[in-house]
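Input sequence (185 aa), recorded before submission:
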Amino acid sequence: CITPLHDVTNATEHGEKACRLGEMTRLGHPVPKGIVISGNFFIETLRQDDTQNFINARVRDLVVENLTDVADASCDIEARIMKVELPEAFREHLAEMASPLLKHGPVAVRSSACGEDSGDAAFAGQLDTFLGINTLPALGKAVLRCWASYWSHRALAYQLARKVQLTSMGVIIQTQVDPRFSGVL
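Predicted structure, token format:
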């Protein structure tokens, strides 16, 4: 469920952002080293402890015209996701894969939702990135917070307004760099 960034080729499983970063890495562009947690693991984990059913019930009747309900649902979902216990085998695999990245300094934990950057919706700025993560316990919490951003009030309102829906979320963990500039290509 965790793949080195340079091996990511499946946007349906890892999200467009991770797929494009993997492609740029294979083409030799200077992309910070990273790993990607699959969207399949995201779906599988949320099925545990009835979390997905709780989420479905909270978003079922939301309408974009009632942003208070959207914000309340988002807060409830985030609280529920932050209580999710990541399986021991996953935590061990994450530690094995992320430790070499953490040895070189902090990492960035970035969303790579499956369905963003499509022809119908870009989701630019709707999902969260967490910077300065420098320990394994903080990394696990950042993954959960990144997952929770899938249902942030911004992301929910965006989906409701455009009548589009994300399908899952990959999570990119990359060596953090201090850029002089950034952009979108």
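Checked by second reader. Helices lie at 11-14, 16-26, 39-47, 51-59, 67-81, 88-102, 136-148, 153-162.
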